[in-house]
């Protein structure tokens, strides 16, 4: 066993962080100090507007960036906050309370709206959010007793901190600035903790995230709720700042697009991108508007549109993306990806097979009239390796999908032994993960924009909720799987062999009790096949049970305690590997009738 | 009873209007697989051009289609060539969405810069005169729009099924890679299709302009309904868009009378959301779930 420590992760991180942290501190300090020092009312106004848009855009980014759900209807949460604050204030309730009332309503609305929309992706999710926004606008116009209808609403002029309305500008800046910091803080906290990793994983590959035990609907609803609450709170303050609101301006598609646009321009999905976008664009347009006034009607919108087009065409990852490419240039030379799988020490004696950990009975699956799985039953014992083989189209992957919760069988049951010693019948991928069933996908499903380390961390989070623990486990797993040299490379850059190993590493980091491996040996070289075999045997020796779909016969023969042969959805043979490969029925299934007697 | 018949007639006429605006949108989506958020602004551009030509040269608005449709063909083809094509391989769909959203924002505000916030009225040339058909009364221009929509649907279906180019377009729409292997120039087909889709909006613009005043935001007003129509009919289906337009026209007309004219839109968008969530493939869409197309 060689432990090659030459693959230490690049130690550049803290150094690379320092200039970025410095830049961030400078921007944040400037946002507050410039208007205070200059003292001009217009400058104050520009900086307050920057803070508001930076806050709104940062909040949007939690959903639009991290979760990848492109909402173009975020103005509805803003509007809910604005109207809640305004209505309550006119009833004599302080906006500091109204703010939270608005946030609560926005959270409820966001959950009710988002839940059915999560099956929609990309443009369709965007369209649905636009439609909801329109419904809100029309309703706000209709119920004029509450909202004042098209005439809009004006606040009763009550000044002071209690009412969030001031004659001088400084207190408004303090509040806007403070709220922006809250938004940034929440966005940072989400991105740097498990929830953020889960959101990005769900965005990149929903099914792989599910297999890693991520409750994808729950994490998305959390993200949407946080985003809606922050947006509504900004809305309340902005209404007080503007002192007048109307449905057309508040529930506005243009406004929603602007919020999203700052995030895109700064760098969608990054923590500080939206801030950067707002800092750069708001002054430009506010000054143009201030200087040219009504003559330049439409000018600022035109500038926004053109900037958006240019960014999309030439800088699709925004300013942050361009900056990070610049800093990462030095780490560009990636080593060859034929890195060794580190061979593992093996126990001298193999522990005996334990109790039954999985029982599959009478599994049926048909698509229309086509039976892809017909009465499949088998059991798996603790510490056993079960090979699942069969010709293409035999239904192996379908069986895998049914014994990991990704597909509901039409008939039959799958029971898994829980730690408490009872058999359970899990249903969803989450249930299976909770019982310790981990799987890989035949068609690899990496979280493409995440690094190798982050990919594995998503698996590790299942047992280790804290980032540092998960990172530790991920590094260790990467090392075992020979992925250590690419820890900080984006997964999309790996070769197919590397991606296969990443699949295994991710599921291993979950520390499963039952491991379902779907053709993990395909596409890796001879040496690595041998190492992978050793790796699997060492995993088995720790008491993990494995079911492996495999075409590499060398692996099947030397790994499996037992082999099941599937053909046209039915089990045609079962037994020791040496016996099964001689079975005439198996030879017929693989090679056709003529070959059955060929070697006799 | 007469009121009901009048509402049905209004609904069908409105349907004709929605249909002629939506056909280009569904055509572009069906082939290029891009949701064009700037579709409404194409319509707006066409309507302004109609207005300029009719007012400037004193021509009948329908004659302007000879200039407006080619103009929009070029606008659409250029959008595909210089904006969408470079982004077709983008790994995230948000880039494509923002591309057309950005185009839409730029066009709306460009119109605002050039034409100001006032509305522009294209001379009606008698097209706003009512016609009595049995118990119902509709506008002459609406009848022509309805007829044009029917002819456009038939024409496009014939073009797509009978001509070599049409067959190539359908091949590309069904499987881009396979079509490429068969020697079809996919990029060219995309540019052509986007152009044809935009030209359909040009036709719509010339027909709609005499009935509706133009403003920079007219596109937003129509395009949201067009999205509803196209999703209801099944994205990419031309016949579906026509049927969807009729349904939405009728719903709009009925809701306006029986529920309240200010809640019309809420009802239409409510229907849209129900369809999007329950049956995203629409009435005539392929069985492929929309969540996998992007």
Walk me through the structure.
The complex is a heterodimer of chains A (600) and B (294). Chain A is α/β, with parallel strands linked by helices and 600 residues long. Chain A has 2 domains: 35-257, no CATH class; 357-595, 3-Layer(aba) Sandwich (Rossmann fold), CATH 3.40.50. Chain A has helices at residues 13-38, 41-66, 75-90, 95-117, 122-142, 144-147, 170-192, 194-204, 206-211, 216-242, 247-250, 253-267, 273-292, 299-314, 318-328, 396-402, 429-434, 452-460, 467-480, 496-508, 526-541, 553-559, 577-580, 584-591, and strands spanning 153-154, 244-245, 356-367, 370-381, 385-389, 411-417, 423-424, 437-439, 514-518, 545-549, 562-567, 570-575. In chain A, the strands form 3 sheets. Chain A has a 6-stranded mixed sheet, sandwiched between helices. A 4-stranded antiparallel sheet of chain A has the order 4-3-6-7, covered by helices on one side. In chain A, strand 6 (411-417) and strand 7 form a beta hairpin. The longest helix of chain A is centred in the middle third of the chain and has 27 residues, at 216-242. Chain B is mainly alpha-helical. Chain B has a domain at 8-117 and 134-221. Chain B is 71% helix and 3% strand. Chain B contains 11 helices and 2 strands, in the order ααααββααααααα. Chain B has helices at 2-32, 39-57, 65-84, 93-115, 140-162, 164-174, 176-181, 186-208, 218-233, 238-258, 264-278; strands at residues 130-133, 136-139. A two-stranded antiparallel ribbon of chain B has the order 1-2. The termini of chain B are far apart. The model of chain B is unreliable at 287-294 (pLDDT under 50). At the A-B interface, helix 5, helix 12 and helix 14 of A face helix 4, helix 9 and helix 11 of B.
């Amino acid at each position: 066993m060689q432990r090659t420590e030459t693959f230490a992760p690049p130690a550049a991180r803290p150094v690379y962080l320092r200039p970025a942290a410095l830049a961030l501190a400078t921007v944040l300090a400037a946002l507050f100090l410039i208007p205070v020092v200059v003292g001009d009312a217009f400058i104050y106004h520009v900086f307050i507007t920057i803070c508001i848009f930076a806050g709104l855009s940062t909040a949007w980014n939690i959903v639009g960036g991290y979760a990848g759900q492109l909402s173009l209807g975020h103005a509805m949460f803003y509007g809910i906050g604005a109207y809640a604050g305004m209505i309550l204030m006119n009833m004599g309730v302080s906006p500091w309370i109204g703010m939270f009332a608005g946030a609560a309503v926005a959270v409820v609305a966001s959950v009710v709206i988002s839940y059915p929309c999560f099956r929609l992706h990309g443009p369709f999710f965007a369209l649905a959010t636009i439609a909801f926004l329109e419904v809100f606008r029309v309703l706000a116009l209709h119920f004029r007793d509450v909202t004042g209808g098209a005439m809009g609403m004006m606040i009763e002029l009550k000044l002071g901190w209690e009412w969030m309305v001031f004659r001088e500008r400084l207190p408004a800046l303090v509040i806007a600035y403070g709220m922006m910091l809250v938004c940034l803080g929440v966005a940072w906290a989400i991105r740097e903790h498990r929830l953020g990793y889960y959101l990005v994983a769900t965005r990149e590959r929903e099914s792989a995230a599910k297999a890693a035990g991520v409750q994808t609907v729950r994490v998305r609803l959390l993200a949407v709720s946080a985003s809606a609450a922050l947006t509504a709170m900004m809305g309340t303050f902005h209404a007080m700042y503007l002192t007048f609101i109307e449905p057309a301006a508040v529930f506005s598609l243009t406004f929603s697009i602007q919020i999203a646009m700052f995030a895109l321009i700064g760098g969608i999905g990054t923590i500080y991108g939206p801030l950067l976008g707002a800092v750069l664009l708001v002054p430009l347009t506010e000054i143009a508007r201030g200087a040219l006034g009504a003559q330049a009607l439409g000018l600022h919108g035109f500038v926004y549109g053109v900037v958006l087009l240019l960014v999309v065409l030439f800088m699709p990852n925004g300013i942050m993306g361009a900056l990070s490419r610049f800093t990462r240039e030095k780490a560009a030379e990636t080593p060859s990806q034929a890195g060794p799988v580190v061979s593992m020490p093996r126990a001298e004696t193999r522990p005996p097979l334990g109790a039954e950990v999985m029982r599959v009975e009478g599994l049926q699956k048909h698509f229309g009239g086509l039976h892809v799985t017909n009465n499949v039953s088998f059991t798996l014992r603790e510490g056993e390796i079960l090979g699942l083989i069969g010709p293409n189209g035999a239904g192996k992957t379908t069986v895998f999908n049914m014994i990991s919760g990704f597909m509901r069988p039409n008939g039959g049951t799958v029971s898994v032994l829980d730690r408490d010693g009872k058999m359970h019948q899990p249903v969803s991928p989450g249930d299976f993960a909770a019982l310790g069933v981990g799987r890989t996908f035949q068609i690899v499903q990496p979280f493409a924009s995440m690094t190798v380390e982050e990919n594995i961390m998503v698996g590790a989070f299942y047992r280790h909720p804290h980032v540092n623990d998960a990172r530790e486990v991920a590094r260790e797993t990467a090392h075992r799987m020979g992925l250590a040299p690419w820890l900080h490379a984006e997964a999309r850059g790996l070769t197919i062999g590397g991606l296969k190993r990443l699949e295994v590493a991710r599921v291993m980091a979950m520390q499963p009790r039952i491991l379902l491996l779907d053709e993990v040996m395909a596409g890796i070289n001879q040496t690595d096949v041998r190492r992978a075999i050793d790796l699997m045997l060492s995993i088995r020796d720790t008491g993990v049970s494995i079911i492996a779909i495999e075409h590499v016969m060398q692996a099947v023969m030397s790994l499996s305690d037992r082999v099941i042969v599937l053909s046209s959805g039915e089990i045609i043979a079962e037994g020791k590997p040496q016996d099964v490969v001689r079975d005439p029925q198996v030879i017929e299934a693989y090679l056709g009738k003529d070959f059955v007697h060929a070697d006799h | 009873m007469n009121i009901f018949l009048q509402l049905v007639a209004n609904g069908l006429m409105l349907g004709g209007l929605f249909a002629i605006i939506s056909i280009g949108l569904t055509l572009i989506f069906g082939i290029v697989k891009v949701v064009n958020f700037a579709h409404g602004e194409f319509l707006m551009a066409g309507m302004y051009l109609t207005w300029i030509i009719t007012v400037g040269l004193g021509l009948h608005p329908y004659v302007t289609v000879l200039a407006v449709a080619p103009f929009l063909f070029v606008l659409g083809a250029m959008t595909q060539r210089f904006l969408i094509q470079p982004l077709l391989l983008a790994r995230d769909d948000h880039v494509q969405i923002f591309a057309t959203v950005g185009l839409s924002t730029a066009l709306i505000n460009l119109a605002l810069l050039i034409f100001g916030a006032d509305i522009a009225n294209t001379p009606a040339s008698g097209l706003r005169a009512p016609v009595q058909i049995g118990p119902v009364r509709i506008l002459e221009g609406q009848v022509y729009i309805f007829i044009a929509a029917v002819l456009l649907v038939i024409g496009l279906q014939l073009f797509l099924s009978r001509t070599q180019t049409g067959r190539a377009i359908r091949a590309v729409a069904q499987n881009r890679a396979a079509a490429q292997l068969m020697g079809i120039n996919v990029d060219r087909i995309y540019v052509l299709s986007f152009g044809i889709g935009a030209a359909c909006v040009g036709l719509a613009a010339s027909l709609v302009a005499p009935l509706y005043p133009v403003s920079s935001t007219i596109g937003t007003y129509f395009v949201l309904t067009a999205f509803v129509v196209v999703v209801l009919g099944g994205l990419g289906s031309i016949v579906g868009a026509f049927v969807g337009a009729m349904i939405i026209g009728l719903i709009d007309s009925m809701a306006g009378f029986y529920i309240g004219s200010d809640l019309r839109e809420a009802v239409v968008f409510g229907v849209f959301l129900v369809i999007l969530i329950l049956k995203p493939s629409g009435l005539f869409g392929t069985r492929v779930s929309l969540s996998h197309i992007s």
